[in-house]
Design brief:
The complex is a heterodimer of chains A (510) and B (645). Chain A has 510 residues and is mainly α. Chain A contains 19 helices and 2 strands. In chain A, a hairpin with a 4-residue loop joins β1 and β2. In chain B, 75% of the residues lie in helices and 3% in strands. Chain B is built from 27 helices and 4 strands. In chain B, the strands form 2 sheets. Chain B has a two-stranded antiparallel ribbon. Chain B has a two-stranded antiparallel sheet with strand order 3-4. Chain B starts with a helix and ends with a helix. Chains A and B meet through α6, α12, α14, α16 and α17 of A and β1, α5, α6 and α26 of B.
């Protein structure tokens, strides 16, 4: 069942390559239908998992390693290497998989009128969807690594072929930088492999044996390698410089997937691999992560404030938002075991932030795409008073902006409140400094709203500043509606994350 | 159930109006009035039933609401003022405006305020608190095509949010200090420094929201919003919410001791200084805004000195008085197109109902004996006197200043109409981009009701009735002020009122004499020359905004630009340079090692063939060949290692 969810998109994508290029409507609808079916399947998985959670929980005592895994599949793949096709979901991966499916569906709807090579476009996105879902359900390091690198390859082509501006150069920079990061990741994985006995790449097995428990030096080095690899992908300061050009030159759906899904692969790697497999090293170097997190928060927010290009600005706010996650995960390392609800709040907040950022930044990038479509530029100074000709555009952007700056009632607040509240006792001063991040983002996002949408109306010469089309509304509004649902009724999501968060804390504290 | 209804009703009604957009412009005002009336009924029900609700929210942190005595007083006040404001707004925000947006936002705003006053824990409090701030942004910037109004809205939001960070801090500190579920009631009982951090954070957020020093300047900007917005934000909600929160956490303020003192002094100084600012204003709405800071300062002072019942009385009385005054100012603004005091001369004589109700409100605001604010203020001053003499003196001085600015406004409003300026009205054809017109009678209905409240709420000071008030609040009786204190403040207020009224009236009269018809003088007169003002610093709200720009905003923006430059020129380019370096090294390696390797591979095969003949053959004496051989050996070893293990 889980394999079907993962590979359905890429299979449809392969079939799609046989469809004649000129049948655009058929291509578009097939893509939308596939993404919708995949999302429906994941919702079914979620419901099934939630219903069985109690039963699996009891069984977890026997496994003892990773908590309640659902829909597990474990097939020998390269037994000589200790690597298998091992997949499964839990409360950490299921929300991200669901968010991934939602974003790909939004992109499918948004791209309904794709004119440039629609067949390859759809097939490539379907391929990326399989790769992304595969990564989030992987329970094997080699499998994880393969999906990790394939995502880079897929995104390279999306930026290079369908991008604008200096797309080729940005795509190459993105590829080289994140690929280099993935090599560091591979190095770390190899250390884990060699340290385990018997040698294995299986994540569940590695978590169980805690291979570098008695080797702080090698443990630290392994964590360094893995963290650098993940930090490039996340990205944190100072490894973020590939992000702004990649976003600026990527097509809107590409940016959505890049920011919404690919960045999460970095942060997800921390909670799936780095923290539970290297708990001692994580606790030892927790402060490093806290500091990197805070620097990312403040640096990302400040640099975003100085941007004049709408899309670059949103890209830098991603650095800021990812910083909160790293801060929270570092704080969990400091808290250790007996921290009461603080550590649970921090981890739950971090996972919620991954989902929330995907939805809200995804919406913002789609809206950026609309802006570019209308005016041919992202420069904020070229626009003004768009709320007059395009009230729906302005209204949806306002909701996305307030969500992104952490307004209660939207998902960002649920995430950031938990992160701050959970982290403060572990790292009082860094957390207090990170609080300034939500003030700076508020200032810069409202300033953007003011410049582009309010005041007297103006636009670039020759621009047709008409309002959102149905297709655009249908791609953006559901993302914001979901963010609002999480913001007002968060329990359905938190019920899923919290048990997994507690398991993770347990593993880090041992 | 009642409590859910009370909150869900405005929230859902507001949400529906906002989503449906301009289609529901027509239905908006009637719907809002109906909702507000129903809410008043529900508010009365909650005040009687005292319900409480709790649902799970986050790990160990429930979302809980409850109506206790203090909350009951606030809920009633909010609902009543909201109804009055909405009735006025239905006339003031005319057809053709985006009424669905306006009333939708107002309804959402009041829902957030009701959650704020009934929340029992920091999580829900912070959520509603921030939502209130964001909606105030949308309301202040309601006329968004005017860029300056939007800038003002942004400034108001950012300023209050900077103080809100204190509440985020408080949430973390409360968790660290062990306050279960982040409940406000448990803060005072916490031990150690976390208690102080939590309470200080909450106090900071409260001071920012209630526009106390040094945050006061945002309230001046908030005045660019529509009049009903000012009437709602600055009377019973938003600004008052800060004072309310301080009253709610008063046990905690008292427990830390130092924090109570800080809060009391901030309140007293704000009351005095912003009172002086109010006196210096030429613009009626600005005068009222500064007076809001000043009057809410008394609530803050009350929280600092432990007089919860006095603070609550001031909260209620000020809400009635200030909503009344803002609505009258709004009616005049709509009718005359001006809020400049110099142009409002004698306006009370022309518009009688607003004029008389304005007078009642201003007298109450000035602390004239037997009216509501006088009674509340003296309770607070009595409690302050028990704590500290200087605090009492500052508070008393602030009370005198209140009488002075009230007198100034009254003298102008009842002054002899300046014929030239009344005739000159036609010059200003529009205001806020809208056609000028009189507010219909329906819009004026709330004024007499509010005026009656402004008078009657003073009865709470009478000993026989005071017991009922404290019973409603469920608060212990704070000691009633001594008779001499009541007498002193009453006499001082009356004296200040009379003196300033006389001075202002004389200034208006001499202004008329001076003006012998020459055009230059007339320009001077409309420039406000006939109205009493103060030094520029006071007119300019103590220069607080300028200070914030110079000390905070400017440097932060400069730093941001510098960082962005660093990011582009150093970090990004550094990576590029590293890439180029790698490329160059690759060429270099290609030239030196790869070619060497190719050569050496050939030689090695040769060497293998000739191994029997000469074991010395590999010793070529060339370093790079040794290197290459070493690499080959290492690779072979690594392969063996992996295969064998």
């Amino acid at each position: 069942m889980l394999s079907l969810v993962v590979f359905l998109p890429v299979l449809v994508g392969l079939v799609l390559l046989l469809v004649p290029q000129r049948r655009r409507l058929l291509i578009a609808w097939t893509w939308i239908a596939t993404a919708a079916v995949d999302l429906a399947l994941i919702i079914a998985l979620w419901i099934g998992y939630a219903l069985n959670a109690g039963a699996i929980d009891h069984g977890a005592g026997g496994r003892g390693a990773i908590g309640a895994l659902g829909y597990e599949e474990n097939i020998a793949w390269m037994p000589s290497l200790g690597s298998g096709y091992h997949i499964g979901v839990d409360g950490l991966s299921l929300p991200l998989a669901a968010m991934t499916a939602v974003l790909f569906l939004a992109c499918a709807i948004y791209s309904g009128r794709q004119e440039h090579r629609p067949r390859a476009h759809a097939a490539l996105f379907l391929f990326l969807q399989s790769v992304s879902l595969g990564l989030f359900v992987s329970l094997d390091l080699i499998l994880f690594f393969v999906f990790f690198d394939l995502s880079i390859v897929g995104m390279y082509f999306i930026i290079a072929v369908w991008g604008h501006g200096n797309a080729a150069r940005s795509a190459l920079q993105f590829f080289l930088y994140t690929f280099l990061g993935s090599l560091a990741l591979l190095l770390g994985f190899l250390v884990l492999y060699l340290a385990s006995d018997p040698h294995t790449f299986d994540i569940v097995e590695l978590i169980r044996v805690d291979p570098l428990k008695n080797d702080p030096l090698l443990g630290g080095l392994a964590l360094l390698a893995i963290s650098v690899g993940l930090a490039v992908k996340t990205p944190t300061v100072p490894f973020h410089t590939w992000l702004p050009p990649a976003h600026t030159d990527a097509p809107a759906p590409g940016s959505v997937i890049l920011a919404g899904v690919l960045l999460k692969m970095g942060t997800y790697g921390f909670i799936r691999i780095a923290m539970p497999i290297l708990p001692d090293a994580w606790r030892t170097y927790a402060m490093v992560f806290v500091i990197v997190g805070v620097i990312s928060v403040l640096y990302g927010a400040l640099v975003a404030m100085a941007q004049t290009n709408f899309k670059r600005m949103v890209a830098y706010t991603s650095v800021n938002h990812m910083g909160y996650i790293i801060l929270a995960l570092g704080a969990v390392g400091i808290l250790g075991g007996n921290s009461g609800p603080a550590a649970t709040l921090a981890v739950t907040g971090a996972v919620t932030q991954m989902v929330s950022h995907g939805l809200l930044t995804g919406a913002l990038f789609l809206l950026a795409g609309v802006l570019y479509d209308r005016g041919g530029t992202y420069e904020m100074s070229a626009y003004g008073g768009l709320a007059d000709p395009a009230p729906r555009f302005a209204g949806l952007t306002a909701v996305a902006v307030f969500g992104s700056l952490g307004l209660p009632g939207l998902s960002g607040f649920i995430a950031e409140f938990q992160i701050f509240t959970g982290s403060l006792s572990a790292a009082p001063i860094p957390t207090a400094l990170a609080l300034l991040g939500i003030l700076i983002t508020a200032a810069l996002l409202l300033h953007m709203l003011q410049r582009i949408f309010l005041g007297p109306a103006k636009g670039p010469q020759g621009a047709k500043l008409h309002d959102l089309q149905t297709r655009e509304v249908l791609s953006v509004a559901p993302l914001l509606a979901l963010a609002m649902l999480i913001g007002i009724f968060p329990r359905f999501l938190l019920d899923l994350i919290e048990p997994a968060a507690q398991t993770l804390i347990h593993l880090v504290a041992r | 159930m009642v409590l859910w209804l009370l909150i869900a009703l405005p929230a859902l009604a507001g949400g529906c109006l906002l989503v449906s957009g301009r289609r529901s412009d027509k239905a908006a005002a009637p719907l809002a009035i109906a909702a507000a009336a129903a809410m008043l009924g529900l508010a009365i029900a909650t005040a009687v039933l005292r319900p409480s609700v709790e649902v799970g929210a986050l790990e160990g942190i429930p979302a809980a609401l409850a109506v206790d005595g203090l909350a009951a007083a606030a809920v009633l006040t909010v609902a009543a003022v909201f109804l009055a404001v909405v009735v006025f707004a239905s006339a003031d925000i005319g057809a053709g405006e985006a009424r669905a947006r306006f009333f939708g936002l107002m309804l959402l705003f009041v829902a957030a305020m009701l959650i704020t006053v009934t929340s029992t824990g920091i999580f829900v409090l912070l959520a509603s608190w921030e939502v209130m701030g964001a909606i105030s942004y949308a309301l202040i910037g309601y006329w968004w095509p005017d860029a300056s109004k939007v800038r003002s809205a942004t400034l108001a939001f950012i300023t209050t949010r900077s103080a809100d960070l204190g509440m985020y801090l408080a949430a973390g500190a409360a968790l660290a200090g062990g306050a279960g579920g982040l409940r406000l009631a448990e803060l005072a009982g916490m031990q150690g420094p976390w208690r102080d951090v939590a309470l200080a954070g909450l106090a900071l957020a409260a001071l920012g929201k209630s526009a106390q020093l040094p945050f006061s300047f945002w309230l001046s900007h908030a005045m660019v919003g529509p009049s009903p917005v000012s009437a709602l934000l600055h009377s019973a909600t938003m600004v008052a919410a800060g004072g309310y929160l301080l009253l709610r956490i008063e046990p905690g303020l008292a427990a830390t001791i130092w924090l109570g003192q800080v809060v009391a002094w901030v309140g007293a100084l704000t009351a005095l200084l912003l009172g002086a600012v109010a006196f210096a204003q030429r613009d009626l709405k600005q005068l009222l805004a500064a007076s809001t800071c000043s009057q809410v300062g008394f609530i803050v002072l009350a929280a600092g000195v432990g007089s919860v019942s006095g603070g609550a009385a001031q909260f209620v009385a000020h809400a009635a008085v200030k909503s009344l005054l803002f609505l009258v100012a709004g009616a005049w603004l709509a009718a005359l197109g001006t809020r400049d005091l110099a142009e409002l001369r004698g306006v009370g004589r022309r518009y009688r109902v607003p004029g008389i109700t304005f007078t009642i409100g201003a007298l109450a605001l000035g602390g004239i004996p037997l009216l509501s604010i006088w009674a509340a203020k003296d309770q607070i001053l009595g409690a302050a006197l028990q704590r500290s003499g200087p605090l009492y003196a500052v508070g008393l001085a602030a009370a005198v200043v209140s009488a002075a600015y009230a007198a100034k406004a009254l003298a102008v409003v009842w002054g002899n109409p300046d014929q030239s300026s009344i005739d000159g009205q036609t010059a200003a054809g529009t205001v806020d981009g809208r056609r000028r017109r009189s507010v219909p009678v329906s819009g004026l209905l709330p004024l007499p009701v509010l005026a009656a409240a402004a008078v009657l709420l003073g009865v709470e000071a009478l000993p026989s009735v005071g017991g009922w008030w404290e019973e409603l609040l469920g608060q212990r009786v704070s000691p009633s002020p001594e008779p001499w204190e009541l007498l002193l403040s009453g006499v001082l207020a009356l004296a200040a009122l009379a003196a300033v009224w006389w001075l202002q009236a004389r200034r208006l009269a001499t202004g008329d004499v001076d003006r012998t018809g020459s055009k230059a003088d007339r320009v001077d007169a409309t420039d406000g020359g006939a109205v009493l003002t103060g030094p520029g610093l006071l007119q300019n709200w103590l220069g607080l905004e300028r200070a914030a720009t110079v000390v905070i905003t400017g440097p932060v923006m400069a730093f941001a630009v510098a960082l962005a430059r660093f990011d582009d020129r150093v970090l990004a380019r550094g990576v590029g340079a590293a890439g180029a370096l790698t490329l160059r090294s690759a060429h270099h390696i290609n030239a030196v090692i790869e070619d060497g390797l190719t050569g050496s591979v050939g030689r090695i095969s040769g060497a293998v063939r000739a191994m029997g003949r000469s074991a010395r053959r590999p010793q070529t004496g060339l370093v790079h060949q040794y290197y290459a051989q070493a690499i080959v050996v290492l690779i072979v070893f690594a392969a063996l290692f992996i295969v064998l293990r």
